[in-house]
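Incident review: delayed structure delivery

Summary: a single-chain prediction request sat in the queue longer than the usual turnaround. Root cause was a stuck worker, restarted by the on-call engineer. No data loss occurred. The affected request and its eventual output are reproduced below so the record is complete for anyone auditing the incident later.

Affected input:
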Amino acid sequence: MQDIYLKNKQLMQHALSAIIKKRRLAKNKSISLISAEIGMTKSMWADLEKSIKDPQLSTLWRIAEALDIPLSQIIIELEKNLDDFTLVG
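Output delivered after worker restart:
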């Protein structure tokens, strides 16, 4: 069961990373600029885009603000990209 959870968590992180990166590039912002706008280190933002970090809700909220979109939009895109996804095995 733990293996399924870890695999699904990784899938979710990859999908979230893709959304964050796509949205940042659409805004034509560098990692340096967008991370500075919300007081996040460049390395932390880069780690999020590389699926290395699993952001807390408060961090995800800051990311949504930096991307100038509602947090719910990130969740909607995540659900759409993952379709019938679940973290429960």
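Verification: The chain has five helices and no strands.
Action items: add queue-age alerting; document worker restart procedure.
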